[in-house]
Structures are given as C-alpha cells and as structure tokens.
Design goal:
alpha/beta, 5-stranded parallel sheet, 22 strands, 25% strand
Length: 461
C-alpha cells in the first residue's frame, strides 16, 4: 500500500488548491476525485453560469448599442453555441488543473473515496492508499426537494446547465443567489421568467436597499415576475410543461428550475470508520483551523456548512494544507466577500446594516450612486450605488456593499480596506484614478461625512 503525507478527498476549488499548497510545502500528496477536476464550481456552477451570464450581458450591451451611435441588424441568439463555448472554457480550465497538479507532483486518483480507518482510504476501483493527514473537500450538491415531480421538465441547476436549448418560459423555485442569477440570464436571452420565493423577499441576506435595487431592475428592466411570501403548491410536470398554484393563482411554464439550496456530499465516505459523524444538518464540523474531531483529519469548503462560496473554500484549503504540514496552526481568514452575478451585479463584505441593527451596534453609513460618476455616464451604466458601513465612534470601515456595474470586481477594494482596518477618512484621502467606477468608494467615504463633491448635500432638518 502506497502511503502519502497528505491525501485530499475532492478536487474542487478547495481540494485542488489544498493539494498544491501541501506539495509546495514539501509534503507527498495524493488527491482523489470521483467525477471531474474542478468539482461543482468549475463543471456545473461558478464557471458555466458566468460564461452564460457573460453571453447574456453581451447581448444586452448590443441591444443598447444605438445609444452610442452603433446600429446592429440581424441579431440572433444561438444558445447551443453558447453551451459549446461554455464547455470549451470548462475543458480548458480542467486541463489546466490537471497540469498544475502534475507539475507539483500530486498523485491523482479517480473514484469514490471511503475511510477504512483514520489513516487508510479505499478508492472505488479497489486501490487502497495510506495517509498521515487527510483533508475532506467533498463539497455540496443541488437539493431537489421530494415534493417536486421527477420529470425532465423539472430540473436543478446542474440539469439546467446541461440543456442545449432554452425554454420559452420558466418557473424558478427559490429567490436566492443561484435562482436569481439564472433567472436574470434566461430573461436577458428572451425567456419569460417567474420567480417564486416562499420567504418575504428575494436575496434576503442582503440589506433592504440593495435588495430593492436588484428586484426593481429584475422586474422593470428584465420583465421577470417575482412572487414572494407564497409557496408553489400542487406542482405537476408533463410533456407539455409544468404547472403549480401560488397564492390562489395557477402558474404554467415550459420548465421548472429548482434553486432551493444545496446539501453536503458525504455519501460513501464511511466517516464512522474514521471516528467522525455529521451534524444534524449533515455537515462535517470543523473549527477555524479546519480541524475535525479526528486529530489527523481536516475538512474544508461546503461540506463544513460554513460560508458556501468557492473562494472561501480555496482560503480554507490553503489554511488546511498549511496546518496539515506544520505544527503551528493558523486560522482561516473570516472576512469573505460575497458576489452575486444578477443583473445588476452585487458585491458585499463585512458587516451589513441589518447585522449592525441586530447587534445594537452604533454605525454610520455613506452611499453614492453611480449616476454621479463620469465613467458611469460615459459607459451608459448608471444604475446602482456603493455603500460604506463604519463604526460611529472610531470611523473604522466595518462593511460595504455595491450594487450595479462591475460590483463583483469593485468589492475587492472594499475587502482590502476593511481587512487593513482603514477608516473612511483614510479611504477618502486615497487618490482614485479618474474617470473610473472605483471613484465611487472615495465619493462614498466623503458622503459618509457629508462632504461628497459630486452629490448634493443632504437637506438639513
């Protein structure tokens, strides 16, 4: 039996960086993946959806070209070609991961991994390998509720991304990040979309002002119908489409997309052989250093039930690798930016206004709309705003939100500033290039103190 210093189970955005980092630190490393390198994120999540969203955004820009004096004729959409481009990009990135693992000396195994004991892993093809330390990075998968009909016209996100044609109409069950992203993409490509969310609003983890901005654009600009605070009941699916009742109204569409959450992947691991068990919700519990209840076993990413984002899984993977190799443990950073590729985009990080209110924390906020920026006007992208949340006494930056053009890129500056423990005064004194969208952060820092140059002063009571 071949034995390695570290064996990583799962080659998603947490697993493969963990394997590479452990190898960089001098460990002998093996990685086991049951399906595809890159995991859900690369194959059926982050990259496929963003490739299709980029295509939909390109179409939207072309439709607005007349405002720039550009006339476009003969416009058409070939969704099968979009899927082909998506598959090409996914394939390219998977090949890159394989080469990176090989270049770092990481042994690659394919199959379902299971524990024989705390130091021994069996792989589906009959191979058995030993490990001094093990990192579990098996991720999560789309949840398909039992009450939904099992039919080709009722799919979860993975099934939707494998389709080569778009339906004329679509019901989206769930108004979270995944549901709203795919709803926006489909609507931009001409699909009639209805979103049904049981809770009081879509994207409930966001502050109300950010939610209002996104919802208004989805409804007014994209034509998406959003029904909140109501359940979708009596759901049926047949060869002609799907139907359901919502608040006394009958809804019909060609397709139902279920986007009601994800569940951890632990099936087949045989955790009990390693002295581990899952929580009541099915997750593997791990501390901030990614340590589980078994001294030599670490867990990272979605399977831990912490922040379910690819970039956080990567950060956990790097921390777990370092902790598995070294005796001095280091915790994983907990300041995690959150990005949503709806139309408009959203980026948040740190403390929200809602968080501050629930904690009875004294904060002050500043907001600046993109409509006040020269670059936004020149680009024809003026909807939305950025917002700072700062400590009322110390002026230290605690949180930020951006909703509008390039919000998913802009949030990086806010993350760095909060991590560096800057104040709004320091951020406001930092020169930002003109004309750029990033100037909005500087303007917002000034606005928080009532000193914005490019926004009218607030009326005094």
């Amino acid at each position: 039996m071949e034995t390695f210093d570290i064996v990583v189970i799962g080659a998603g955005p947490g697993g493969y960086p963990a394997a590479i980092r452990a190898a960089q630190l001098g460990a002998s490393v093996a990685i086991v993946e049951k399906e595809q390198l890159g995991g859900t994120c690369l194959n059926w999540g982050c990259i496929p959806t963003k490739t299709l969203i980029a295509a939909a955004d390109t179409l939207a820009k072309i439709k607005r070209a007349a405002a720039f004096g550009i006339t476009v004729t003969g416009l058409s959409v070939d969704y099968a070609a979009m899927i082909g481009q998506k598959n090409k990009i996914v394939g390219q990135l998977k090949g890159g991961i394989k080469q990176l693992l090989a270049a770092n000396g990481v042994r690659q195994f394919t199959g379902v991994a299971s524990f024989k004991d705390r130091h021994t892993i069996a792989i589906g093809d009959g191979t058995v390998i030993g490990a001094k330390k093990i990192i579990i990075a098996t991720g999560s998968t789309s949840a398909m509720p039992a009450f939904l009909p099992r039919h080709e016209r009722a799919v979860e996100s993975r099934g939707f991304l494998d389709m080569t044609t778009l339906p004329e109409s679509m019901l989206v069950l769930g108004g979270g990040f995944i549901g709203c992203e795919l709803a926006c993409m489909a609507a931009q490509l001409g699909v009639k979309v209805t979103v049904v969310e049981l809770l009081e609003d879509i994207l409930l983890l966001l502050d109300p002002d950010v939610r209002r901005e996104v919802r208004a654009h989805m409804e007014k600009s994209l034509g998406i119908r959003i029904l909140t605070g109501k359940a979708l009941e009596n759901i049926k699916a047949g060869d002609r489409g799907v139907s359901g009742d919502c608040g006394g109204e009958s809804l019909q569409a060609a397709l139902l997309l279920s986007a009601v959450g994800r569940k951890p992947v632990t099936d087949g691991l045989k955790l009990e052989n390693a002295g581990l068990k899952t929580s009541d919700r099915g997750f593997i519990e791990a501390d901030n250093c990614c340590r589980t209840g078994a001294a030599n076993i670490f867990a990272i990413g979605d399977v831990t039930g912490k922040t379910q984002l690819a970039h956080y899984a990567t950060a956990q993977g790097l921390a777990a690798a370092a902790n598995a190799v070294n005796t001095k443990y280091q915790p994983c950073d907990t300041l995690v930016p959150n990005v949503i590729f709806t139309s408009p985009e959203v980026g948040t990080v740190g403390l929200s206004e809602d968080d501050a209110k629930k904690a009875n924390r004294a904060v002050k906020t500043g907001k600046f709309r993109f409509a006040g920026l020269g670059k936004a006007l020149a680009s024809g992208e003026t909807s939305g705003f950025v917002k700072w949340i700062a400590d009322a006494a110390t002026d230290q930056l605690l949180g930020a939100a951006a909703v509008g053009p390039h919000a998913t890129e802009l949030i990086a500056e806010a993350t760095a500033a909060i991590r560096a423990e800057w104040t709004t005064r320091e951020l406001g004194r930092t020169i930002h290039a003109h004309p750029t969208f990033s100037e909005a952060w500087m303007e917002t820092a000034h606005a928080l103190h009532g000193e914005s140059i490019h926004a009218p002063p607030k009326r005094k009571p």
